[in-house]
Amino acid sequence: MNKLPLLFTGILIIFGAAWLGLVAYPVSNLGHLQPLVDEDTAGYFPPSVAGLAVAGQKVYASAGCVYCHTQQVRLDPTSTDIAKKLGVRQTVPRDYIRDKTAFLGKRRIGQDLSNVGTRIKEANEFHQYLYEPSSVTPWGKMPSYRYLYKLTKIVSQPSADAIQGLKGPHAPPTGYEVIPTEDAKVLVAYLLSLNKNYPLPESPEPTAK
Amino acid sequence: MNQPSHSSHHEGTEVRTLSNEERAAIDASTRGPVILFIGSSIFWLVIGTCLKVVADWQLSFPSLLDFTALFTYGRIEPAQSNILIYGWASTAAFGAGLWVTARLSRVPLLHKKLLISAGIIWNLGVIIGAAGILVGDGNSIPGLDFPGYASPILLIAYALIASWIIITLCYRQPGALFASQWFIFAGFLCFPWLYATANILLVWNPVQASAQGPIACWFLENLTNLWLAPVAIGTGFYIVPKLISRPIASPSLSVLGFWTLILFGSWTGISNLFGGPIPAWMMGAGVAASIMLIIPVFSIAMNLHLTLSGKYEVMSWSPALRFTVFGLYGFFFSGILATLLALPNFHGALQFSDVFAGASLLSLYGFVSMTFFGAIYYIVPRLINAEWPCVTLIRCHFWLVLTGLVLALSALLLGGLLQGFAQFDVASTFRSSIEFVSPFRFLSAIASVLFLLGHLSFAFLFVLMLLKTGKSHSGPALLNEPTENSLETLAV
Asked: How far, rounded to the nearest angstrom, does the alpha carbon of residue B121 sit from its chain's CA centroid?
């Protein structure tokens, strides 16, 4: 303990062991997983993701969604995620191979989004929610993402992109409509793509009790 | 400062003293860089707390500042936490670490202009990183949000700063290393390893996302366990003995605490992914390490208690000792809480609740920040040869942050327990988890205003202190009348 080189070597070995276990091991063993082929449809699990949805991950990261929303369905029985219908099975490393960043999250200020694409299937519903969350869930704490939308005057006829059925204090006045920006469109494409309910052999669905 | 308290160290019989001239030469060499680091850390503390106030109020009132992307919760929240980690805590760690290392190695810092440039580059990196998060370039990886273009700047500045610590240690006056030096050395060695690994594998050239979970957890937890904690403990273990003129009670407890902290601390992070997408052996290893972490926690706290026992009353007048001791006991309580929360049943129910936010507040604020406040109260008067100008401001700072801490912690823990129960209970809806926690979030938003007020008094005090540099030499700023004659003439 009285010599610098000894101290240095000790720290190097101990910290290096943890580094090997928690950094090098995942990189070499979990970092090169392949999708599995679905024999019925010749598709892949997890399915490949459309370009729009990939672009949406960037907006998801930039808006910091991960600070309120997790994307993991945890193991039974230490958690009740499956019983609470956040997903039909536990999420495993292979579920994340299509992502650029694993948005696992640390806090559920809002709902888990691992399978939000199976609960909300319409782009318009997502847009309504993102534009004015309090009009859909007044008890919720999600801020509005109005900055992803443009309020414009209807020129000749309503745009096909415009969000339908907006309510609440920020609903467009008559003669105006709310158009999603490119960022809003790709974000919604990403959210619609969130579905991890496909089967994977390493994570069987728990049988009903 | 005129008494030989420095020699009463814990390494046994050998007596090492610094003459006043030597000490003055060392302090003159550290003055510029350390004041720069401490000053900028206080600046970032105020900025970070302002953002924290906004983020905490947004949790109660989501429509606050929701008209622009710049101030959306998902950007304010990572901006405040990264500013507090890299701008405040790490910068204060540089200041304290450099000063303690130079004092204990008994050599002046050489080429301090290079060190000052490193400090400026570091601050530039924090500015660019924080601005990057606010404009939407953040990585959305907790603790690692600074965009890929800001982190190289931080690493370059860091390389210079750490080299100075290591060079100073290598050229120290012959003799054994003190416990403080081991801790500080370990912290400065682990940080670049952590930060470079995480940036390379998660930001610059991300590995497949399936492997990212364990790496991100390893990084975030070790940022506290192996970077901020060792530097804070090392600083505390220097300041406490000096203030009560008594050596660290047990050298062997120091050795035990040091090695077990590195050994178990480096594995605990992975327990935060229990039940998540990681192999089962990692979950087991993480839980085991978190439980074993009580060994360093108890040995460090026990050592501190043995050192202080019978001398606790010094805390009533010395602000430096008061903050440091609160901080080091914060380490004890945050360690116990972390161990409890790693137990799989607690973890499964509470993992995504505010309880974990409370635990991280306790470790980053209750422990690290409080210890560095104590260090700043101790170091600055010695560097600029003046006493703290206003006792009322010190008192405001202490009581505001302590009230804030107790309020925020109780609100987060109680609210989090209810929220976690609703999140775990199959019959409860998600809505009820939000409604249970909501009043408690309001309390913690009030607490963050108290933090801000406390930090503003601290910043104001520091500015007054700088204005006074080299002038008057009145008595030390004591919070209360000492009950006995302290050996330290500068007992702050």
From this structure: 21
ipTM for the complex shown:
0.94
Q: Which chain B residues are within 8 Å of A25, Cβ to Cβ?
A: 214
Residue A5: inside a domain, yes or no? no
CB contact under 8 A, A31 and B189: no
Rounded Cα gap, residues B34 and B49, in angstroms: 22
- pLDDT (0 to 100) of residue B132: 97
Q: Give per-residue pLDDT as tens, A141-169.
A: 999 999 999 999 998 888 999 999 888 88
Question: Is B215:A26 a contact under the CB 8 Å cutoff?
Answer: yes
- Domain range for A97: 36-145+184-193
**What is the arithmetic mean of pLDDT over B416-420?**
96
Q: Which two tokens stand for residue B355?
A: 């309880």
Which tokens go with A16? 């290096």
The number of C-beta contacts closer than 8 angstroms across A and B is 243
Q: Which class is domain B19-175?
A: mainly alpha
Sign (positive/negative) of CA torsion B305, B310, B312, B318? negative
Q: Is A124 helix (H, G, I), strand (E, B) or coil?
A: helix
Annotated domain spans of chain B: 19-175, 195-384, 386-477
Cα atoms found within 13 Å of the Cα of residue B286, Cβ hemisphere only: 27
Quote the pTM value.
0.93
CATH number 1.20.210.10 given to B195-384: yes
